[in-house]
Amino acid sequence: MAAYHSSFNEFEARQAGNISILPIKTRFRGPAPVADSDQADIIDETLDLFRANSLFRNFEIKGPADRILIILILFVSDCLFRIGNARTVPTALEASKMLNTLAVDNFPIPGDANFPLNAHYSPPGSRMDAEYLRTYLTQVRQELAARLVERLYADGTNKPNKWWMAFQKRRFMNRSLAT
User: What is the value of pTM for the model shown?
Assistant: First the structure.
């Protein structure tokens, strides 16, 4: 059985290194192109495919959108791990603060020595491209964290959904973005 790939692989988009800079629906400032509000974006696709893809140890990259999908799935995994390892079960507000802090923390990008998937990613061509990629990923991570909290706490009980939290120890491709 094969993993699920991004539907945005055929989408023509700017690239930094070999990662697609895809449009997103966002409420955070940043360099990301704005997507149509009535269509799914890469963040919706990440949240939809996370649980299915996190069961796979191997993932064949079929295009530049798959590379951003991998980074975002690994980020969701780190977010769930962070929420699951809190001393007490965080409320939606506490989880939102925790994940937003994680999203804006300094993180490695392709080409950095401590980026865990450097073998599969090419580094950005210039320092300006690297800075653009870092700010784009920061914006995408912030939006993903916000939408993840909305999904985790959608039932209104102020406790994370147990069906999502069951994936907190699962590692997609046996990797983690955490250093």
Answer: 0.94
